[in-house]
Amino acid sequence: GDGNISKDFGVDHGIAAQSILLGAREKGLAGCMLGSINRKDLRSRLEIPAHLRVLLVLAIGQPREKIVIETVGPDGNIRYWRDDRAIHHVPKRSLPQIIIASHAVEAQRE
User: Fold this and answer.
1) Cα(74)–Cα(64) distance, rounded to whole angstroms?
2) How does the average pLDDT of the chain come out, rounded?
3) Sign of torsion, CA 77 84 21 53?
4) What percentage of residues in the chain have a pLDDT greater than 70?
5) Which of 12, 45, 46, 109 has the most Cβ atoms closer than 10 angstroms to its Cβ?
6) Which of 29, 101, 27 is nearest to 59 (CA)?
7) Interior CA angle at 77 toward 82 and 74, to 5°?
8) What's the alpha-carbon Rg for the chain, to the nearest Å?
C-alpha cells in the first residue's frame, strides 16, 4: 500500500491479490496468499521504501501437487488431507452454506 496515496487500504489489496491468483491459475500456475509474515524483515531484505506498506505476500509458481476440491461431509469437517497417492483433498462448504442471503431467498421461494 502506498502511504503517499492513502493511509487506509480497506480490502482492495485482498481483491487485487485474489485477481492476481486467479490470473495465475488461468495460466497453469498455483499460488498462496500470505498475511502472517515478518514485514519488518521483508522490508529490510527487499529494501522496500518507508512510504510503502507490506499488506500481503503472494507466492506463485508451478503446482507441485494435485488438489481436489471436496464437498464438506455431513459431519462438517473442513480439514484437508492427502491420500495414499499424495492427492491433496480440500473440503469446501457449498454456496448456500456460506452466502447468508441465499437462505433468505430460498425461504421466500417456499
Assistant:
1) 30
2) 89
3) positive
4) 92
5) 12
6) 29
7) 120
8) 19
Burial of residue 79, with CB atoms counted within 10 A of its CB: 0-12 exposed, 13-18 middle, 19 or more buried:
exposed
How many CB atoms are located within 10 Å of the residue 22 CB?
10
User: Three-state SS string across the chain, please?
Assistant: CECCCCCCCCCHHHHHHHHHHHHHHHCCCEEEEECCCCHHHHHHHHCCCCCECCCCEEEEECCCCCEEEEECCCCCCCCCEECCCCCEEEEECCHHHHCHHHHHHHHHHC
Residues 68, 86: contact at Cβ < 8 Å? Answer: no
* pLDDT reading at 102 higher than 90: no
Structural contact between residues 86 and 107, judged by C-beta atoms closer than 8 angstroms = no
| Sequence-separated (6 or more) residues with CB below 8 Å from residue 86 | 65, 66
37-78 tens-digit pLDDT: 999 999 999 999 999 999 999 999 998 888 899 999 889 899
